[in-house]
Amino acid sequence: MSEVIESVDVAVPVSTAYNQWTRFEEFPQFMEGVEEVRQLSDDLTHWRISIGGVDREFDARITEQHPDERIAWSSVGGTEHSGVVTFHRLDGDTTRVTLQMVTVPEGVVETVGDKVGLVKARAKGDLKRFKSYIEARGQETGSYRHDIK
């Protein structure tokens, strides 16, 4: 099992960072190994990923979502993982985005990747790419601002 906690400070207001993170279908633009994310309903997404030559598809259910605060999820079948991303206002123009995630590797490739810290490195890289992605735009490309409890 991999447990990851990573943070990045982004130079945009908390609502901008949060709003962009709700654009799940844009994740492949900054998340390594994420080939596609489709929003199936308000609280269900379908993921297609490729890690170390291993392709996986799974659904993830959003278990909690509060605008400008947090989004939590848990996988539904397939790859076992869960997590939460939180948004912390540091000042009017800076937000700390913190990702906490637990994954259970499947098979030899994922187990080896877990042991050498691949999941943690990927999460850290994804957050850095998110920072570049949102700061280059200065504004979100859309948003989903409903509460899910």
Helicity range: 10-25%
CATH class: Alpha Beta
End-to-end distance, in Å? 26 Å
- The low-confidence parts are none
Total domain units: 1
The count of DSSP E runs of length 2 or more, i.e. the number of strands, is 7
The whole-angstrom Rg is 15 Å
User: What is the mean predicted local confidence, pLDDT?
Assistant: 90
How many strands, what sense, and barrel or not for the largest sheet? 7 strands, antiparallel
CATH architecture: 2-Layer Sandwich
CATH homologous superfamily label:
START domain
Q: Number of helical runs?
A: 3
Task: Name the beta content range.
Answer: over 45%
SSE order:
EHEEEEEEHH
Give structural notes.
- It is a single chain.
- The chain is of the alpha+beta class and 149 residues long.
- It has one domain (2-137): 2-Layer Sandwich (Alpha-D-Glucose-1,6-Bisphosphate, Chain A, domain 4).
- The protein has helices at 14-21, 107-115, 118-137; strands spanning 2-10, 34-41, 44-51, 54-66, 70-76, 80-91, 94-104.
- Strands 1-7-6-5-4-3-2 form a 7-stranded antiparallel sheet, covered by helices on one side.
- Strand 4 and strand 5 (70-76) form a beta hairpin.
- It is globular.
- 21% of the residues are buried.
Describe the protein's topology.
Blueprint: E1 2-10, H1 14-21, E2 34-41, E3 44-51, E4 54-66, E5 70-76, E6 80-91, E7 94-104, H2 107-115, H3 118-137
